[in-house]
Specification:
Elements: H1 12-33, H2 35-51, H3 55-73
Helix pairs in contact: 1-3, 2-3
């Protein structure tokens, strides 16, 4: 794993595509683990978000989790 290059482009559009890819990957991973375990992951992430002091960051995280939950339910 240490030999892999996970560098990110400085291009905003490329970064947006990478983030969308990661959201899709997380959704598929949650679907693969089963409803009970996936629910635990989401609940733990929501608890983590509630503890964030930076409200802008919390809002972005919350929106991301909502997108993943919506995709998971479909």
């Amino acid at each position: 794993m240490s030999q892999n290059d996970f560098s990110t482009s400085e291009d905003t559009q490329a970064l947006a595509h990478e983030v969308a890819c990661l959201k899709a990957m997380v959704t598929l991973m949650l679907k693969g683990m089963g409803q009970a375990d996936a629910g635990k992951v989401i609940v733990n992430m929501e608890r983590y978000i509630a503890q964030l002091e930076n409200q802008q960051q919390a809002g972005i995280y919350s929106n991301t989790i909502q997108q993943i939950k919506t995709a998971y339910r479909n």
